[in-house]
Amino acid sequence: MERSSLTTPSRQSGHPEIVSALCGAHAQVLSAAELSVALRVEGATRSDVRAALWERRQLVKMYGPRGTVHLLTTADLPMWIGAFSSIPQSPSPFPKDVQMTEDQTEQVVAAIGKSLEDAELTIDELTDAVVEATGPWAGDLVMEAFQGKWPRWRQAMTLAAHRGVLCFAPNRGRKVTYTNPLRYLSDVSPLDGPTAQRRLVQRYLHAYGPATPQNFAQWLNAPRGWAGSLFRSLAGDIEEVDFEGTTAWVNSGDTAAVSAEPPRGVRLLPYFDAYVVAAQPRGLLYPGLAAGRALTPSGQAGNYPVLLVDGTVKGVWHQRRSGRKIHVTVEPLEPLSTAHLAELDEQVERVGAVLEGKPTLTVGTVTVGAHA
């Protein structure tokens, strides 16, 4: 919690430093990422996070760990691109008649990077540019989508992001746009694969260790065998420790407790907050009823905003906005003490301040489902 700036909001670190320390902030729902980051910086609001992203370009919104949309820091892009580019690719999930050949994939990635070099394009504009650069096959509507079909080339979007040639740009009205993140790197080259992988493991273990190679592979959505080999290759940089009777790893020498006191306090964390997604083992973080209430049947974390009490998940919550009014409902899984209720009031006020609205609190059952 200390390294996630959850014990107290940081007075020294800004938004880029927070995002870097978290190894990225999940941003599939951008408002959740804004809340996740701003909660960790004293006095910050969602507008501050937006300014760091769209105006100062200190943050980049792109496909990150697990192929999901994240906020990453611009300064860390050389590490991320170097690491992503060298992680073994999973087999294509698409049917044979939908897949592209290796050569076609390379053509598409190159076309994406070239088209976005000095531009911010909508998905339709990018489709036209890719098809013009590669051929009609790239525009074949063969990918199953939410309400129809997507053109063939779009299966390479995550790969293009991981190669460092695609990220999100500011919306044009209601339309999403994309650009090339290399525009923000000032001629800094991505790190080579081994160096980037080593640095990423060390960052991850600093934030979330003790952890196992399997934990790292799950967080990154990478092959477990590859993660195990990577950890073994870092002997000397990382070391084994006994964690609750299980062998886990930390950075070499990083075995001193940050504090002698156990974590204390109440926190309201949004969808897919880095702490509840990356911290392991889940059995300790989601004790008792929390696992059934806040995790999916498959054990996935992040689908519900969670109530954190003294470092562990003890409930869920939901917020509904109406103009400047923010209606917050918190569902504790066990009765809260008078002190915890007082802290909850403070947390609701803090959520309201971050979201730049006027909050009200109801303690009761959250009736909406995941991602609502």
Residue runs with pLDDT of under 50 for 5 or more positions:
none
Beta-strand residue fraction: 15-25%
Structural class: alpha+beta
Q: How confident overall, as mean pLDDT?
A: 94
Please tell me what the overall shape is: globular
Distance between the first and last residues' Cα = 26 Å
The total beta strand count reads: 15
Order of helices and strands: HEHHEEHHEHEEHEEHHHEEEHHHEEEHE
- What is the helix tally? 14
Major β-sheet annotation? 5 strands, mixed
The radius of gyration over CA amounts to 21 Å
What is the spatial order of strands in the main beta sheet?
Answer: 11-12-13-14-15
Helix residue percentage: 25-40%
What's the structural blueprint in terms of helices and strands?
Blueprint: H1 15-21, E1 25-26, H2 30-38, H3 46-55, E2 59-63, E3 69-73, H4 77-86, H5 102-115, E4 121-122, H6 123-134, E5 141-145, E6 148-151, H7 157-162, E7 167-172, E8 175-179, H8 193-208, H9 213-220, H10 224-233, E9 238-243, E10 246-251, E11 266-269, H11 274-278, H12 282-285, H13 289-294, E12 306-309, E13 312-322, E14 325-332, H14 338-354, E15 358-363
Helix pairs in contact: 2-3, 4-8, 5-6, 9-10
In short:
The chain is α+β, with helices and mostly antiparallel strands and 372 residues long. The chain is built from 14 helices and 15 strands.
Describe this entry's structure for a reader.
- There is one protein chain.
- The chain is an alpha+beta fold and 372 residues long.
- Among the domains are: 93-184, Arc Repressor Mutant, subunit A, CATH 1.10.10; 197-251, Arc Repressor Mutant, subunit A (Orthogonal Bundle); 266-363, no CATH class.
- 36% of the residues lie in helices and 21% in strands.
- The protein contains 14 helices and 15 strands.
- It has a 5-stranded mixed beta sheet with strand order 11-12-13-14-15. A 3-stranded antiparallel beta sheet has the order 1-3-2.
- Strand 2 (59-63) and strand 3 (69-73) form a beta hairpin.
- It is globular and about 65 Å long.
- The mean pLDDT is 94.
